[in-house]
Amino acid sequence: MRISRALWLGISFGLGSSWLGCTTSSTSTPSNAAPGKVTPALVKPAAPAPTAWLDKQLSPDQRAELLLQAMTQEEKLTLVTGYFGVQQEWNKYQFKEARRQSAGFVPGVARLGFTPQWQTDAGSGVATQREAPPDLERTALPAGILTASTWNPQMAEQGGAMIGSEARSSGFNVMLAGGVNLMREPGNGRNFEYAGEDPLLAGTMVGAIVRGIQSNRIVATVKHYALNDQETGRDRINVLIDETAARLSDLLAFQIAIEQGDPGSIMCSYNLVNGAYACQNDWLLNQVLKRDWGYKGYVMTDWGAQHDTVLNANNGLDQETGVAEAGKYVWLDKLATAIRENKVAQARLDDMVRRVARALIAKGAVDDPVTPGPIDFAAHARVTQADAEDGIVLLKNQSVLPLAAKDKRIAVIGGHADVGVLSGGGSAQVYAPGGIAVPGLGPKGWPGPIVYMRSSPLTALQSELPKSDITWTPGTDLKVASAAAAKADVAVVFVSQWTTESQDFSITLPDEQDQLIAAVARANKRTVVVLETGGPVLMPWLNQVAGVVEAWYPGSQGGTAIARVLSGAVNPSGHLPVTFPRTLEQLPRAKSAGVDTKDGTQFEVKYDEGAAVGYRWYAKKGFEPQFSFGHGLSYTTFAQSKLAARVENGELKVSFTVSNTGKRPGKTVAQVYVSPEKGGWEAPKRLGAFAKVELAPGASQDLTLTVDPRLLANYEPGRNAFRIAPGAYRVTLANSAIDPGQTVPVTLPERVIAPK
Ligand code: BGC
User: Fold this and answer.
1) Which residue, 30, 58, 433, 664, could crosslink 62 as a Cys pair with Cβ 3.0–4.6 Å?
2) Using a 6 Å cutoff on CB, does residue 122 contact ligand 1?
3) Is the CB of 174 inside a 6 Å radius of any atom of ligand 1?
């Protein structure tokens, strides 16, 4: 059966009343009028001209206010309701101004010159809802998890700037990109879209992507707020977590991304948090996001995550989205009625409108309207390739890589490496130039198809190493694959796992690829495994192979990037943003919650691990992972020296020197972990700061990093603040979360940090 997106999202078809027949009139009062204060009739100021808001000399706040004052009630309601943008039969709206096969559309207000909102997914580039015709093909960045593996915010910002420019050139002014959910479940089908398990790393990297996107004078969207950490039953899972744990983990990732990226919008998620749907959750939206963090942008629903007219409005939502069927919305006339019946204050609707308008004005999408235009695909290919080359992680290397002159005969096996590289599925799917490399794979309906992008590692390797004899074997027949490996000096096995939105996965490689690796490794000791996965996988064959490279989903130049890492043209510098477990038993939950509950039934997951997510959990439990958070090898060697920690103006500063002690230029990631001597945190250590540094052979660099004080603190709900307990702490400079590294003691004074 071909399943449509609408069906997946639970949008049902039926007859509903259209709001369009309903007329309403403006009852708005200027928001600055003090309650109870009567303005004398004689001095009633003249209403500003309807176009007064277009004055660029005014601040975005003033302009949004003037726009609001010029609007009718119906116009206000228009701005806060979004529709699916796709041209598919289940979409009963299909506005002719919507961009083709796009995620969303919000009509503008032509009378006042306010732009429509054209919304596109997502983090790897301009996505299309189903197989794209060639003119909708766009450059694909590597998956978010690969960009996070760069530990290089500048690279993330550059990538964001590139996809944001393609969004603008494709006629979009809102990009639904900035996914920052933490990896709590290694099997979450959307881990590839996110930035790993650590709040500092994920928040910093996603903040940088958002800055890059918005540098194109469009809005970016940090999502999915919050605790939407698995896909199984995503719209009926009730996540239970205490406030301290949430503030120190998932919420901190959002807080940092928002501070560093200043996104115009936030997308609230499908799930419930502590009993209330995220999109009508007063605590998440009104208290944490808007009050404590002072967020001035607007909150949009994930597609179809709106539930209740009054609760959505009163508990902090600003825009409903993804409406696909007449009557299946929560606002428009329903909100007008709720306002007339005093269930929702007019001021709340005005606040929604002000927020939406202000964001589009402040980011530049109003003064610099988007228009479809040409795209420099060649330049953008270089951007995505640079990102991939910075984030591919060399996990294991027993003197097998880089491939050398002595590797005359190279057997490349499996993973469709002759034609392309894998990408992750669902709404974030970008159709890259050249179309689908391996047609006909995966589900026929949503969330398929499985897309291999046309960037062949085999061809790229052949051009990198023209003197080697590089052969190709599909890997579907173990005997043929083993025979090819036996004849070669080195065997490179490509294995992959497709992951996607709306499904979770076991973290075992599918289709007997573990057996393929084992067979090839038996035939040739010099076997290198290249993984294309959306998250961690188990590696029962690890001890039998000489090298392992994690290439994630490496984007539309991924084949070239992989080949250049294998050949040594690129010195790998990616580091894991997630922990790879050794066994499922090491995880807080061996399988996703809710897999056994009936469709439609709500279920709970209690995050007993609290803020001890990822490496923090392993450190707390004393578990040794397969590969640790922060791990990543290089073809050169680095040394660290002169570690010192001091408190300066209340901030913890960590200084040290990094040196390249090997023979090749390379990049290292300095990782600073912090620990309280007396314990009292959710786990013995946290990442406190990091920096990626490029060094020529023999070169050194002195660095001083500042530790974000929240990473030295506990969260105290009673004070509604973070608090650093005074006392003794340890600062560790290391190459991963399990590396003992070098340590210095430091004494910290008490400090209370208000939530914003
Ligand atoms: C996804 C969002 C996406 C939206 C629009 C939803 O299914 O969860 O991430 O932005 O669809 O396509």
Assistant:
1) 58
2) yes
3) no
